[in-house]
Amino acid sequence: MWMRIRRMRWARLRGARGDAGMTTSEYAVGTIAACALAAVLYKVVTSGPVAGALQSLIGRALSAQF
Question: The pTM is what?
Answer without folding.
Answer: 0.50
